[in-house]
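WARN retry 2 of 3 for item q-0093 after timeout on previous attempt; input resubmitted unchanged.
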Amino acid sequence: MAEFSDRPMPPPPPEDQYWGFFPAKYTSRYLESCVDDHVYNGQSIRDRILFSTPVDGVREEEDGQWVITSQEACLLRAKKLIDATGMTSQPHIPQIPGQETFQGYTIHHKTFGRSTFLKDNAKQNVVVLGGAKSAADVAYASAKAGKSVSWIIRRTGNGPAAFFAPEPISKRYANSNEGFYNRFMASFLPSPFGSKGLLARLLHGTWFGRKYLMNLWNGFDKGLRALMDYGRIEGQEHGFANLEPDTPIFWQNDSSGVSTRPDFLSTIATKVQIYRRDVDRLNSHSVVLAPKDPEDDELTLPADVLVYCTGWDPVSYLFSSEEAERLGLTIPAPESDPKVQSHWQGLETDADRRVLSDFPYLGEPPPYLKLEPTHTPFRLYKAIAPVNGGSNHSIVFLGKMVVGNNFRTAEAQALWAVAYLDGRVDVSESAMQADVAMTVAWNRRRYLNKGQLGSWFYFDVVGYADMLLEQLKLSSHRRKGWFRDLMDPCLADDFRDLAAEYKARYGA
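OK item q-0093 returned
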């Protein structure tokens, strides 16, 4: 699943695979080869990249062209612009008292793969901040390198990630990813994307179906918790129970990941000290944790290395706040125009009623710590195109969402974006606004805190990609026969004929 349709990825050696999962270095090599192997008009993708050229601004001129600046000077002008900076360009580093006094080695997980501290004997005490899979990966790698590892997951956040087993649910699938990313499983998701098959209509459109659906998800959650064995004896003295998710897996409020090594969980259980406490401050060579309760004492952890696995800043600083809001990008909430917010609030309130009508159980979330939104949501049509001022079809945004499989989403978005830029997606502004409002309202209900940005589509890869291609009236990615189309895993090879189908329908 981690490949593009026009260039299969060479399989890593068996000793580096675990149920089809493998180290990221193989994906990096694959992507490096892709930029060299794809040649158009005598130039490879690599030939077209301007390396070591930071872009510091983008603005639209009166003539409709986009000006891209570097070091405040015009670098390029373009009639059409694709912003593919995605969601993982700007690391989020939380502000912690005493950061300026900390003398240890500090990195964000973005640069972990290039760091060398695991081989540095002078750096023994590693502190990892964050609750998602990236934090688990850093903690695991540090423990395997013989470091003393402390993993901190704050109490005032969404909690730790849920872990899936790598094994498939059926011999039909190579691993749990294939077992999840198919149209049968997509039918069990309350999603507004694409046309609904008979199974989905029965599950979400009837009282019995909804009751069966939630009982199934609750049973799956209980089974997954039992399989992870958070209370295991060997992990008790290391706080392994602190990794148990705060909310059921259905809600995806605390992210998720796959246990991608045979000893992944056992290593963390026995060699990583896990804390569910907030960070109070940093000292020169330590991290101080706040008391869990008023009667508790603070806790000081030695730290030679501090790794921030704290996610990403969703704001694009290439645009002014006013322009970003007009285009449908997220901005800090205090910078939002009240008139704009009032307009969208009315649309999203109406959309919320439709969401609860379609999926009543989304109105009954489990208890969770509701966080106050700090940013406006993304308001891009189909998570790609501007609504306001976007009638000239001159700009699109790719990757402004969080999904479980970026390869499939990237291919579907790229084809849809080309169609949009060529004026082949013809939708009224009012219809686009209604669609955006529905997506934002659904995201908030479906994914709780994670959905506040309107960009969390983690479980919805299949439905989202199908929706984009369905709007373009393309169908070559669908399997022959209803059973295979429903049950087979959605793989990269499904898309191999889409470009030819698109050209046949719309021209080159």
